[in-house]
Recover the amino acids of this structure.
């Protein structure tokens, strides 16, 4: 991937000594922001600085699920726009992102869960997102492989059915956006590590990299799970983030058996069948911060047990590949996006937890607008860091997600 | 990603017996003249160190004690106190 031949997105360029905008991290939020800065705002003098290779982190490790059935009124419109953008981007980028809107089925295993689902569905419907409650029998009609019998650990009471969601080929999004951005003049520099941000009189002046200093007035850190550590290292800003490894795996390829994304909170497991036939599944995070991106035997066993209960036809099927990625979790399961607050010209886009993939298209569009105009778009206003100080946490989960002593 | 934790009472045990208790942030701030900034900093804010950090653990499936250790977050291995004797 670092061979002498030319990269898939265009020509290899020399790192210049100055750019209008430097973006740290070569993942989807960075690529999308650069793409929209170039496309919508005519800002093309951009360098994307990536320590490894584009799509090394969360962009290539997520399980490719997209949906817009979140819980709060602030989140739903953002994810809805992200969902609506997949077909548009496929066309604009002239790159097949393989959007398969097969629909998401969120299993509910108690009457209390059904009640919580009703509220989430009401929020979705209020924002014009298709989502409805179905009972166990209807779920079985949609996904015949489901086990709706009473004799499993968590019997299925019903499900939240969200037809517009589905799966997008995550690598295609990386490649498509990289090519789309590069065509408009954005430079992508792999194997280039950002080491520091230079400031003067409260303004960004430069970014120090492993290949020299770049002068710039605007910097965005959108480096997925690595963002929080970079932001603290470079600018001393602490964030309400805990970085955890989230695990995933795929089974050997099977004939078509699952034509929806199925997920279960109680089993702590989700599964969908990829176009190659593998069952892609995951969800578990060992609840202590770490950057290992390693799997645990503990979880592989749990996953096999969960799948063989609610999708019993998978009993005996072998896991073929396992991997992990980083999830930068915030207490209210909502991201942090802001700019020009601590230092003029410094923007951050982090705290996505495991929602970074499904949001990248819309966030790229709005972060680009934010950076080009220096005015925070209404869509991003609720996600400012100061909500934690003001006790305006977002309630994306009913209970705070916390890896601190109070939980 | 095996994790073992050394409890001061029970010794070296499987990490799943314990609950992570947050980064070491110093003493709880005094309630007198406490600002929302200082409280938020204490409650929510983390350094997210990719390397060795001091942190709290609770032996939930054991003796119930709370104690700080040093751990490398990139390897999940317990470490001695940097520059110390532990």
């Amino acid at each position: 991937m670092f061979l002498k031949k030319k990269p898939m997105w265009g020509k290899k360029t020399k790192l210049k000594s100055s750019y209008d905008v430097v973006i740290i991290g070569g993942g989807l939020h960075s690529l999308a922001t650069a793409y929209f800065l170039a496309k919508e705002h005519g800002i093309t003098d951009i360098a994307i600085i990536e320590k490894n290779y584009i799509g090394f982190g969360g962009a290539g490790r997520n399980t490719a699920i997209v949906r817009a059935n979140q819980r709060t009124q602030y989140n739903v419109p953002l994810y809805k726009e992200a969902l609506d953008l997949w077909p548009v981007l496929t066309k604009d980028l002239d790159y097949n992102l393989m959007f398969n809107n097969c629909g998401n089925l969120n299993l509910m295993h108690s009457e209390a869960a059904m009640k919580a689902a009703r509220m989430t569905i009401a929020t979705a419907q209020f924002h014009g997102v298709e989502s409805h409650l179905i009972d166990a029998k209807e779920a079985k009609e949609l996904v015949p492989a489901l086990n709706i019998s009473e004799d499993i650990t968590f019997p299925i009471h019903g499900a939240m059915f969200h037809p517009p969601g589905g799966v997008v080929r995550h690598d295609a999004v990386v490649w498509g956006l990289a090519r789309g951005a590069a065509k408009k003049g954005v430079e992508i520099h792999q194997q280039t590590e950002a080491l520091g941000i230079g400031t003067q009189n409260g303004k960004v002046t430069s970014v120090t990299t492993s290949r020299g200093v770049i002068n710039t007035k605007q910097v965005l850190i959108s480096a997925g799970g690595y963002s929080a550590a970079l932001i603290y290292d470079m600018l001393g800003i602490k964030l309400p983030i805990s970085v955890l490894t989230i695990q995933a795996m795929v089974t050997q390829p099977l004939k078509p058996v699952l034509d929806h994304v199925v997920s279960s909170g109680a089993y702590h497991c989700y599964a969908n069948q990829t176009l190659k036939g593998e069952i892609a599944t995951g969800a578990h995070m060992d609840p202590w911060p770490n950057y290992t991106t390693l799997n645990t035997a503990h979880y592989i066993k749990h996953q096999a047990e969960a799948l063989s209960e609610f999708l019993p036809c998978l009993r005996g099927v072998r896991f073929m590949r396992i991997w992990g990625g980083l999830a930068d979790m915030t207490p209210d399961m909502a991201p942090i996006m802001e700019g020009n607050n601590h230092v003029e010209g410094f923007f951050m886009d982090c705290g996505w937890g495991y929602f970074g993939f499904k949001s990248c298209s819309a966030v790229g569009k709005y972060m680009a607008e934010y950076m080009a105009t220096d005015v925070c778009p209404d869509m991003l206003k609720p996600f400012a860091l100061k909500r934690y100080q003001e006790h305006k946490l977002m309630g994306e989960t009913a209970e705070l997600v916390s890896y601190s002593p109070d939980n | 990603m095996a994790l073992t934790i050394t409890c001061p009472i029970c010794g070296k045990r499987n990490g799943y017996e314990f609950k992570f208790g947050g980064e070491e942030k110093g003493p709880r701030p005094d309630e007198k003249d406490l600002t929302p900034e200082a409280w938020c900093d204490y409650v929510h804010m983390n350094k997210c160190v990719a390397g060795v950090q001091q942190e709290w653990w609770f032996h939930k499936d054991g003796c119930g004690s709370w104690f700080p250790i040093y751990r490398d977050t990139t390897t999940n291995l317990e470490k001695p106190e940097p520059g110390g004797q532990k």
Summary: DSSP finds nine helices and 19 strands in chain A. The interface with chain B takes residues 226, 228-229, 232, 238-243, 245, 286-292, 294-296, 298, 324, 328, 331, 388-391, 403-406 of chain A (CB under 8 Å). The radius of gyration of chain A is 21 Å.
